[in-house]
Amino acid sequence: MSDNPQSHQDPLEEVISAFQAMTVCERPPDAEVLARYGIRQGNVSRRSGIPMSSKRRYLVYLVVSSTAAAVLVFGGLAIFLRNSPPPESTQVAASPLESTQVAATAPPGKGQDVAAQPRPKSGGLQREGLGSFGQHVADAQVIVVATALDSAPAPPKRPGDLPEVSIRFQVKRVLKGELAVKEITTRTPTAADEFIGKDWVILLSPGYMAGQYPYASHINIKLEPTVKSYLTKGNK
Amino acid sequence: MTDWPSILAEHGPTIWRTVYRLLDHHADSQDCYQETLLAAWRFAERRQVAEWAPFLTSLATRRAIDRLRQRYRDRGRVIAIDGAPEPSSDAESPLGHARARELMDRVRVGLAELPDKQAEVFWLSCVEGLSHQQISGQVDIPPGEVRVLLHRARTHLRAVLDRSGMAKGEHHE
Question: How confident is residue A65, by pLDDT bands cut at 50, 70 and 90?
Fold first, then answer.
């Protein structure tokens, strides 16, 4: 294959001859190749099963996937335990009469605190901390019993906020504090249908009374005696 | 049971030569050599290999042609001059050697352009010297089709060489 007589033959044959005559480098040593697949030279007893590298890969895969699964399970468990309510609040959650109503009508953030507290009947009438039901009653500047008259969509405080409603209430009686007006309006994220036409015990905070905070805690009317008992105990 | 050390000792040089001739690149050839052996290992797990020589040569050819295709798809790749082998014969002039290399590269490009079976049949028949019967068994086509594919491959590769302008001895002298 050169610039001599060979140039005049079939060029393809010329190339084929060149390929056949081509010098090649040293190939990798057999021992190295066999070692890569976990076979020792002279050891012919090994079956032609999965090469060691594949087995190793499989083991690594198994270990990695098991570890990942374990991390997920324990992580999930840790998050669950961290976020789960204390034992006494389980009782509250089981009581649709009280906690559900409070949670449904209270503003975001505040309602959760209320819902997570124990029922007043279940012992421990006055618990420490701002979140207790008794504390809410104590903290309220004005507590009234009022009937929900109607509602109107409340303008969002900032774009992207979830829709909320303003509920107008007719005050029937005042349980605590003083209230000059006969109608009040509170803001809530709960659907208005749940309020309209029903009586509610409404806890009005100092912030609400000062016009700084439009939310109030709306409590089912069936809990009026409980609220009154707190008020009585608070006065003593 | 498969005696891999013996198989490698007997057929390793053939596999290596096949992949190196096709790829003409040391690192690529090493990778392809490993791939071929791994594929053979896996195949032998499931089925009995009747004739190792044509089987391994065919496997190596297939893998190397796949790599060639990959290489020419990625045109930016440059084969290091340092990696080029020395002239195959002392009698060969540097110019002749350069021309041969150029022609071989043209044919490699042509092989990468060919359909899988055509490229494989051409290489196994013309360069590796397998019989049509052996190729038929390895590529899983009737012997008559081997001849047809071979003819088509040759026609295409001749056209490639003609296009290159080197086929008629148009040396850069």
Answer: confident
Provide, for chain B, the percentages of residues in helix, strand and coil under a 3-state DSSP scheme, each rounded to the nearest 5.
75, 0, 25
Q: Among all residues of chain B, which has the CA nearest to that of A40?
A: B5
Among B2, B3, B4, B43, the strongest candidate for a mutation testing the A interface, having the largest count of A CBs within 10 A, is: B4
Among A19, A22, A30, select the one facing B5 at the smallest CB separation. A30
A100-129: average pLDDT:
42
| Contact criterion met (CB below 8 Å) for B142 and B136 | yes
The helix (run of H) or strand (run of E) holding residue A167 is: strand A164-176
Query: Taking CA atoms, what residue in A is nearest to B24?
Result: A24
A50: closest chain B residue by CA:
B42
Q: In 3D, which of A160, A143, A159, A91 has the Cα closest to residue A121?
A: A91
3-state class (DSSP) for residue A11: helix
pLDDT at A53: 52
CB contacts of A14 in chain B (<8 Å) are 100, 103
User: Is residue A171 pLDDT above 90, yes or no?
Assistant: yes
**Nearest-neighbour CA in chain B from A53: distance (Å):** 10
Mutate to test the interface with B, among A2, A8, A20 (most CBs of B within 10 A): A2
Predicted confidence (pLDDT) at residue B123 exceeds the cutoff of 90: yes
* Averaged pLDDT for residues B161-168: 69
pLDDT digit string (tens) for B5-64? 888 889 999 999 999 999 988 888 988 998 898 888 888 888 888 889 999 999 999 999
Contact A220, A101 (CB under 8 A): yes
The end-to-end CA distance of chain A, in Å, is: 117
